[in-house]
Amino acid sequence: MEKLRYERPVINKIKAGVPDKFGMQTKVEIMPEIEGISVKDILKEYGSPVFVLSENKIRETYQEAHRAFSSRYPKIQFAWSYKTNYLDAVCKIYHDEGSWAEVVSGFEYDKAISNGVPGSKILFNGPDKSNEDLVKAIDNGSFIHIDHFDELYSIIRLTKNTDKKAKVAIRINMDTGIYPQWDRFGFNYENGEAWNAINRIMLSENLELVGLHTHIGTYIMSANAYAVAASKLAELAVRTNRKFNHNIKYIDMGGGFASKNTLKGAYLPGKDTCPSFDDYAEAITSALINSEIAPDNLPILFLETGRALIDEAGYILGTVLANKRLSNARRSTIVDVGVNMLFTSFWYEHEIYPAQECSLQTEDTAIYGPLCMNIDVLREAIQFPLLQKGDHFVIPRVGAYNMTQWMQFITLRPNILLIDRNKNIQIIRDKETNEVFKRQERVPEHLK
Ligand SMILES: *Cc1c(COP(=O)(O)O)cnc(C)c1O
Predict the structure, then answer these.
(1) Which among 87, 193, 426, 443 could bridge 187 via Cys, Cβ 3.0 to 4.6 Å?
(2) Is 81 in the pocket of ligand 1 (CB under 6 A)?
(3) Phi and psi at residue 382, to the nearest 5°
(4) Domains in the chain, ordered, with CATH?
């Protein structure tokens, strides 16, 4: 028998299967293009960093959500949540798809009007509506979602001398099994405040109670919470009908559906754990059609989903500024995207993809933004390939909230681009310049 040849033993890290102490195993996926357009070319032409939105993705996601609901319930109306992303171009895409506007301030209300939305297709939410805002909304026949008794009494007062009836709904908060409970907006269901508000409205001559509204929270991972909420609103609609012989025209389930981003501290990626539009639709519509509401009086179902509709359509593209070793020898990569423009990095573990071929080797890396501030951390720890200065990267799923909650801090805000349906790139918001800030500021005479 021939002597076996010696082979030196090797230790191989198993890359498949269960997560290790760093989380799920990552293989290096790259994202050199967005909708077939080279990331490198986009950055060269429009500067780094830059936000990019996909019109196709916005429309596809909207249509998917609409299909999930309209195939299960006869009367569906979406209203675009302006605060999630109120770039005019974005709002106009949703309005073109048939969405109404959902606004939470006078500023957003005026924006919707200037985007061509008729007043009668605006849902006006939020705790801060001035008398001026309320008068405008009453005159335009908008739907006012009352947040508190002070607002209810203001509306009663404001309608004393007009012949116009105010079209109102109330926002209702409740225990849906999601904690902490969002009980600071609207009237509480369990303690009877919501029923009290309904009774006061029904007895006010110049107010017409058209709807019941709730928005139970944001990034809600449980479809069942919506079933609980919809049942409670249906119950109030039935009680209102029984006592006043009055039909509630719509039930508005607000927003709050989770997007596919991964929350900080989550064990599994959001794309594997979030309910689908079908899951949410099944829960909400089942609760409504199985309620005691008479079939002839089935209310319109309004949805104000924001995050889940637009997150996936947004990308931010950027450039590596430097690499360095931290005092404990960990690698850190400094990039030109900071938390000032990527506000959501405070609560998401954003995925970051190299935009060019790179080494297969990855290392536990901290990714920092360019700000001279300790809080400017995009990822505390990510298994990341060894990108070099000047290399590009893409962060997907940044369409929701970043382009409204961003702050002008240390650096100027970048261009926002839209890849339209013909794959043309359109600037939909110009990058800021020093001129923009000069225009707003004044230097007193003695300091000139
Ligand atoms: C913010 C908000 C929405 C949208 O919430 P998402 O979590 O982005 O879906 C809808 N309705 C109201 C009243 C809101 O304040």
Answers:
(1) 193
(2) yes
(3) -145, 140
(4) 33-53+313-431 (2.40.37.10), 55-311 (3.20.20.10)
User: Cα separation of 8 and 136, whole Å?
Assistant: 81
201: helix, coil or strand? helix
Identify the pLDDT of residue 14. 56
Reference 217, options 259, 194, 265, 185; nearest CA is 185
Contact 65, 97 (CB under 8 A): no
The H or E element containing residue 9 is none
> What type of residue sits at position 66?
H
Provide the pLDDT for residue 5.
Answer: 82
438 phi/psi in degrees, rounded to 5: -55, -40
- What is the phi/psi pair of residue 286, to 5°? -60, -45
Distance CA 46, CA 232 (A): 50
For the stretch 73-108, pLDDT in tens is 999 999 999 999 999 999 999 999 999 999 999 999
Helix (H/G/I), strand (E/B), else coil: 323: strand
- Identify the CA nearest to 400 among candidates 323, 336, 325, 316: 316
Looking at residue 20, its pLDDT comes to 62
Global confidence as pTM: 0.93
Contact 99, 78 (CB under 8 A): yes
Locate the DSSP E strands across 326-419.
Answer: 331-335, 353-354, 362-368, 377-385, 392-396, 416-419
Is residue 304 lining ligand 1, measured as CB closer than 6 Å?
yes
Q: What residues have CB less than 8 Å from 180, skipping those under 6 apart?
A: none
Which of 78, 83, 397 to mutate to test ligand 1, by most ligand atoms within 8 A of the CB atom? 83
d(CA 76, CA 333): 47
Q: Is the CB of 102 under 6 A from ligand 1?
A: yes
